[in-house]
Design a protein that fits this description.
6 helices, elongated, alpha+beta, four-stranded mixed sheet, 4 strands
Length: 188
């Protein structure tokens, strides 16, 4: 499985959730069929096990439904993002989700640079910029410094935003690592 923050994490998570969901469903179906075929009743231990297996099935179904709308960057956009990151000597976090009681927001790419968090909106989704900034501001609850949060709509805008910033000093680079770690804690 791809580690969180790396390119391909959302796709890997979708695959994992789908596989676990199908395995749980197959186990439930097999238990019920064994009970009905061999014992001609539903009042067996096999049906109880099937009922118990419905809990992980439901958990994985919900997990899959949460990530189904998450679309990572295309291969060409990923290559462009890596070029931007190399030019600015920073690291991008990919496939970042932030969950809240109101829902989930997905950011295909997020840059943490010199006390700034720059998130890329997922293309094609009806995300309001205001909501996207609000969700991303949750990163401010962790580190001692409050980073500036910006949401952009394209990689070109992200590059422009990074070009406006000065390189971080050594102590700020440590805070940037803390901000990035907090970012990884916020979603699934």
């Amino acid at each position: 499985m791809v580690a969180k923050g790396n390119y391909g994490y959302a796709k890997s998570l979708k695959r994992k959730r789908m596989l676990l969901m199908l395995l749980c469903f197959a186990f439930i179906l097999a238990d019920v069929l064994i009970s009905l075929v061999f014992f001609q009743t539903k009042k067996t231990l096999f049906v109880v096990l099937a009922c118990i297996m419905s809990i992980p099935f439901a958990k994985n179904l919900i997990g899959y439904l949460m990530v189904i709308r998450c679309e990572p960057l295309s291969a060409a956009d990923y290559k462009e993002a890596e070029e931007i990151a190399a030019k600015k000597e920073t690291i991008f976090a990919y496939d970042i989700s932030i969950t809240d009681t109101d829902g989930v927001l997905f950011y295909p790419c997020v840059a943490v640079y010199n006390n700034n968090v720059i998130g890329l909106l997922q293309p094609g989704q009806n995300q309001k910029k205001k909501d996207a900034v609000t969700y991303l501001k949750k990163v401010q609850e962790g580190p001692p410094t409050k980073p500036r949060v910006v949401v952009v709509e394209s990689l070109k805008d992200m590059s422009r935003e990074l070009d406006r910033l000065t390189p971080p000093k050594e102590d700020q680079a440590r805070y940037d690592v803390q901000i990035a770690e907090r970012l990884m804690e916020l979603g699934f």
